[in-house]
Design brief:
Blueprint: E1 7-12, H1 17-31, E2 35-42, H2 53-71, E3 74-80, H3 89-102, E4 106-109, H4 117-132, E5 150-153, E6 168-171, H5 176-184, H6 187-197, H7 208-229, H8 231-238, H9 240-245, E7 249-254, H10 263-269
Parallel strand pairs: 1-2, 1-4, 2-3, 4-5
Antiparallel strand pairs: 5-7, 6-7
């Protein structure tokens, strides 16, 4: 019997965060026919050195839609201001309503340890919403869920107060080029703002093909140390022989604030992981 399609809800802070942190896993789910929705909590209005406000917001909404289209996912960008996000009741209640309305099997979001305050705010808001999605008196105009979904934290590089725990290790080697294709849709970020912010703007090629090749190499250089950090977990998951050959992975930590990842749920949510 074919597996009933899963519903995956990605809740992140900025347009491009989902592709950057969990693009491979999103691509895998879509390849398998599952439903993926990306919710960006902020409008992205501060992510540029020359543009801001409504003009940049419109541009980033279009980029988010184009990136989601690459894999056939849905994308929604909310109106909370970029760079000013707080884990307020308004944000929490909006997330509760979204989780209830979408009824996901799995939620992907930021961990609470992160360099960006907007990322931390989203992580806190999702954490605080997790149990409350089952409480009828909270956000009472949206039907309550009878049980929490599993919540997983997307990969990050931060080690204090503790590094991300690799509860699930996903081989995304076959999806790596697709990740780069999605990222390339975020032109304002990949080829303008981030290079400016990192003093690399002069390195960005002018032509489309050159830019795509440059982005591939930049993303690979960023991800390679992360992969090697978890090589032991990769080998443990995929075996010694295959573990040595896997080039790219995404690792996920399961939140303790939502549904536990039982053996049954692991097999259902991650059938492509041994």
């Amino acid at each position: 019997m074919a597996q009933q399609p899963l519903r995956i809800l990605v809740i992140v802070a900025h347009p491009d965060d989902a592709e950057f942190h969990c693009g491979g896993l999103m691509a895998i789910y879509r390849e398998l026919g599952h439903t993926v929705k990306i919710v960006t909590v902020t409008n992205g209005e501060s992510g540029h050195h020359e543009q801001s406000g409504p003009a940049l917001t419109a541009r980033r909404r279009a980029e988010a839609a184009a990136a989601a289209k690459v894999i056939g996912a849905a994308a929604e960008v909310w109106d909370f201001p970029d760079g000013r996000l707080q884990p307020t009741l308004e944000v929490r209640f909006r997330i509760i309503a979204e989780i209830r309305s979408f009824a996901p099997d799995l939620v992907l979001t930021h961990r609470n340890n992160d360099y960006h305050p907007d990322h931390r705010a989203v992580g806190d808001a999702v954490r605080d919403a997790s149990y409350m999605v089952t409480v009828p008196a909270i956000v009472s105009d949206v039907p309550v869920l009878r049980k929490d979904p599993v919540v997983a934290f997307v990969p990050d590089r931060f080690t204090k107060p503790y590094p991300l725990q690799a509860d699930v290790v996903v081989d995304v080697t076959k999806q790596f080029d697709k990740i780069v294709e999605m990222l390339a849709c975020h032109k304002s970020q990949m080829f303008e703002w981030l290079p400016f912010n990192q003093n690399e703007l002069s390195e960005v090629p002018l032509g489309e093909a050159g830019r795509r090749h440059w982005l591939h190499d930049k993303y690979a250089a960023r991800q390679r140390p992360q992969v090697e950090r978890y090589r032991r977990e990769i080998t443990s998951t995929y075996g010694a022989d295959l573990g040595k050959k896997i080039e790219w992975v995404e690792v996920y930590e399961i939140s303790e604030y939502a549904a536990p990842l039982t053996a049954e749920l692991r097999a259902r949510l991650f059938p492509f992981v041994p």
